Amino acid sequence: MSDNENIKDLSRRKFLRNSAVTGVAGAGLAGGFGAGTMMSSRPAEAAQNNEHHVEPGELDEYYGFWSGGHSGEVRILGVPSMRELLRIPVFNVDSATGWGITNESKRVLGENAPLNGDTHHPKVSYTDASYDGRYCFINDKLNTRVARIRLDIMRADKIITIPNVQSIHGLTLQRVPSTERVFAAGEMIVPLNNNGDYLDDPSQYWTMMSCLDAETMEIKWQAIVDGNLDNCDTDYTGRFVAASCYNSSRGMTLPEMMGPERDWTVFFDVPAIEAAVAAGDYTTIGDSQVPVVDAREQAHEGRNTFALYVPTPRSPHGVNTMPPEGKYCVVSGKLSPTCTVIEWSRVGEWFDGGLDDPRDTVVAEPEVGLGPLHTTYDNRGNAYTSLFLDSQVVKWNVEDAIRSYNGEEVNYIRDRIDVHYNIGHIKASLACSRDVDGKYLTALCKFSKDRFLPVGPMHAENDQLIDITGEQMKLVHDGPTYAEPHDALMIRADQLNPSQIYTRDDPYFAETVAMAEADGVTLETDNKVIRDGNKVRVYMTSVAPNFGTTEFRVKRGDEVTIVVTNMDTIEDVSHGFALVNHGINFEIHPQQTSSVTFVADKPGVHWYYCSWFCHALHMEMSGRMLVEA
Amino acid sequence: MSDNENIKDLSRRKFLRNSAVTGVAGAGLAGGFGAGTMMSSRPAEAAQNNEHHVEPGELDEYYGFWSGGHSGEVRILGVPSMRELLRIPVFNVDSATGWGITNESKRVLGENAPLNGDTHHPKVSYTDASYDGRYCFINDKLNTRVARIRLDIMRADKIITIPNVQSIHGLTLQRVPSTERVFAAGEMIVPLNNNGDYLDDPSQYWTMMSCLDAETMEIKWQAIVDGNLDNCDTDYTGRFVAASCYNSSRGMTLPEMMGPERDWTVFFDVPAIEAAVAAGDYTTIGDSQVPVVDAREQAHEGRNTFALYVPTPRSPHGVNTMPPEGKYCVVSGKLSPTCTVIEWSRVGEWFDGGLDDPRDTVVAEPEVGLGPLHTTYDNRGNAYTSLFLDSQVVKWNVEDAIRSYNGEEVNYIRDRIDVHYNIGHIKASLACSRDVDGKYLTALCKFSKDRFLPVGPMHAENDQLIDITGEQMKLVHDGPTYAEPHDALMIRADQLNPSQIYTRDDPYFAETVAMAEADGVTLETDNKVIRDGNKVRVYMTSVAPNFGTTEFRVKRGDEVTIVVTNMDTIEDVSHGFALVNHGINFEIHPQQTSSVTFVADKPGVHWYYCSWFCHALHMEMSGRMLVEA
């Protein structure tokens, strides 16, 4: 088993059946893990949970926003049913909707966009630390991008590639007074001008925190930091953003990265950085015009005015501010069995000169178990930390952990529950907002092993749902999910108000409307073919079960743009435009206009059809493109 | 509402709330629909179904194979939990697995494959009319393709584009003695040599049935037919395949397609066609070498020896053979409120000269309701037909329908249940096989309207699960699904035996293994870089949490092939290879080899990382590609 011995308890069912002995922890992970080996006394399989079953026709209580990991998408789940209500294509190409194929989506994605992405941390926008239902932001670790999804139409409207850094890992939002800023944590360290000059000199490698304007999606500034940035979160005052750092030893290989007992959590003073930028006290890198400030320790004599580095054991991972007031943030140790509790007001004191030792911001460091990755919260003062190696969720009381840190004899651990298996992210309902309600918690497990019928070498992940209303946690649902849900959040159903049909003035297709106007075409009524040299624009309406144009003629080699406007007005009467043997298919929902551009390179008769079942005569909803040889 | 009035009862909830009046049927659909307006007396919301709930840790009873419609994929669901266990990328590009990006998948997809597809009818292979768990076949209506999925590794291993026709709609398999043949029904009529010569002469437009060899996936023959082919099914003897035809009037527009009261069901005598092909009695079309026979009525003097055309009311849609003996096939009327029951043995009699009138093969034509689309079965002699316009499933007894057709006074209708809303396909557990068990039925509903929390203008479909063990049907689950599940089938869990890890001799990556051997590389142990002019092949292993190569160097403009072999041996310890800012990410499951080829066009340091959470030190599993300027 070699290195895999690190993956403890990979299959509890097999473990029990075979009495196999699996190692607890590999090299570099030993020591002080007593708390982590305490197992739950309740077999998860015995949970009786019918009261959480959502009957046919009943609606869910929460919207869940799930990252799709390296599927490149974002998903909306209903909670507690854990049913997938929608996939939102973001960084991927989506065959069903034509995302990545239509002109409207290409305008968002940009020219020559990659075909994939690796979404990590979906975040819904805030007003005064409550979800306001306007936007969901999501990062792409693979191609170093950040996207904004409009939550009225559930489509991305802005995607930006972040320059000067490689891999956006953490993503978080300003909470107060509202989400005016988006913070994107660059993970990999690379030469600051990555043009090939410093290939062999890792001492020249660095990464940065980036701050985006949430409305324009332009980058306001970047700040160079020590170490690889990992996860991040903001406070409840609007002043600070914090990120965990791993690889403080600046290693290039795993052994080199495993150096110190402590890396750090870094806190950025946003107004201080923006004052410097406003004063012109910044540089730029290469072709990029983004203002860059230097938040590395070496760049500051005396106290660093941009960043506070708090030593934190070991390769710290999750950074999570405790609701509802945002008094503390908890940083989960990953390679340490501890969480580090930092008080936000003390961070302010440090920046304001009231504290000297960065560690004085730490108010507790409870031992929670093996492989703590992320922490979430209920509304009763308890934290819930995911334990990757223990395959458990541990519930602990924050104030009791602080009392323990201060020397009192108090057991801060409240409960443990097995999860299946090897949990990554964890998130309780509304736990990142002022409105935390302590009802449900989702455990995003990286291995499912034997929990579902086998479906080949690629296993599902397992998103488990846990009822946290009682003293003891209760597992209520095993949810297989496609690779690889990375993070999730839940908001109340009443906190979102999506559009059921498009309005004709929707900015998502405004450029297409402008093109039609320049052609003298009224999209809502006209079915016209406009020839402009070897460019042909075909405008048509769709009303179930008819396309307004059932035949048009072009010449081989013409660049053809097809624009379809769905004039149906009843919700859910969607159409699709599918052109056979041309790789073209796209969505046209009620009152939407969609378009595609391609070169007609095959002479002959080519049928198009409606791909979205719309009517008893749906199959007859079709037409022909005639391409002259 | 205009044409949308045809969509009856689009939102039952709103209907009840608003007391709105919706039309029952539009023009061309009137008359004789009395049976269709009988509503269920049981409100679906009242169903109590906890006994069907699958508790955490419990396994499902059935594998469900779902088409993903215009998502281009196939999905595996667990039944009765209706949880999605896996997506299988087929005609789409998949960001998570690298399907469409890796060399191995491109070998299956072919050069310059489109980025999308429209999957319709998944079919699992048979031995003696029982599912044998070897393959799942699936068609692509959008780009006229057929794919075969290996059910051991759940990846497509052959994809073929069907020449001479446009749009594969129906797909079905030979059942007896085993699945040696795959039948693919061409839908759209086009000029037989579609080179631009007959653009304006629809009298030259035709379509064909295609027969593929299930092992080689080569096309054995094509048969030109009258009308547009729609759905198809085979018998239980291995001799026949049947397809429904719509647009027998050969119209180009919807009004022209709505002509006759009857179109037809066409039956092909496979041995007769293959005897003609073996005798050299065929033609070819254009560049294609596929043998083409003419099964149109006009091509035969006297009795057509290839095809039997049975007049069938009206725009008939689903064709479904009744298990377990395969005595009848039921063709669902779509624009007629009837199903047509045809006895397979009489089809044989007709071909053998024993019957004169094609309609003498019809043994019943029950009135079932408005908009019958597809029919499925239990093991107690009952048929279940989906009614699109009624938004219902109707249960009727086949032998009673035959008695009624023969003049007896008998009520063949057993039950009706509302579904939500506008059902397309329907399928009961094992209903396409000898092992039909009459337990569950899935109703694939095209509209979900108000059944789930709203998620914007694009609504989920609704796959409902119905318990059919009792006299009355019982709705037990509402399942939202992403656009657009078209068809589904369920097989017993014991009928499938997928691999949990790859074997090193898997043919899926055999070409890559051969390339390594030619380079003198042992994939299982070597971490080597081979330079061959400006081509660079980088071979590396992966064992959690390490890539065998953590640094390699190329020159700008090199064509780089990266080959990764996952030497982990524990199931579910998958890795991904993600190269930042290069649009490259792909799966490497235990014991699998995967590869990708690209041009290194950006000088600088480029990190790659493991995208599949594999270990506590997963984030540290990374390496660098150094590109010299």
UniProtKB/TrEMBL annotation, chains A, B:
UniProt entry keywords in alphabetical sequence: Calcium, Copper, Membrane, Metal-binding, Oxidoreductase, Periplasm, Signal, Transmembrane, Transmembrane helix
Subcellular location: Periplasm
GO-annotated cellular components: membrane; periplasmic space
Catalytic reactions on record: N2 + 2 Fe(III)-[cytochrome c] + H2O = nitrous oxide + 2 Fe(II)-[cytochrome c] + 2 H(+)
Main location: periplasm
Stretches that traverse the bilayer: 20-39
Domain Cytochrome oxidase subunit II copper A binding residues, every copy: 461-629
Keyword set includes Transferase: no
Essential cofactor(s): Ca(2+); Cu cation
One GO MF term: copper ion binding
GO biological process, one term: denitrification pathway
Function: Nitrous-oxide reductase is part of a bacterial respiratory system which is activated under anaerobic conditions in the presence of nitrate or nitrous oxide.
Family: Belongs to the NosZ family.
Name the record gives this protein: Nitrous-oxide reductase
Organism of origin: Halomonas chromatireducens
Name of the coding gene: nosZ
